[in-house]
Amino acid sequence: MRIRSNYQVRGKAKRLERLLGGGEPRVFVEIELALVRLSDNTLVIVDTYTEQEPAPDNDVETSVIALNRATTRIFERFLSQILQAAAEMPERQEAGLTQ
What we know:
By secondary structure, the protein is α+β, with helices and mostly antiparallel strands. 34% of the residues lie in helices and 38% in strands. Strand 1 and strand 2 form a beta hairpin. It is elongated.
């Protein structure tokens, strides 16, 4: 069973880095994310999100864990923006669906 989508999330990883020189090991994540309404191809949200996360050592495994934490925070911010945009949509306000 396939359900028709009303929106699409588009994204581009712009920077995924493991930074080892010049101080404490850390990772840097930069992702561009967009929410597109498919009915009229309108960009509802488009933004570039960046996060840094310290890594406890130079180990690849701990760097991957740090990348996951930074990426999680980015998606949490994106989801928060989606929820805010949804609450402000006129059709939700008319239906009494806003909080």
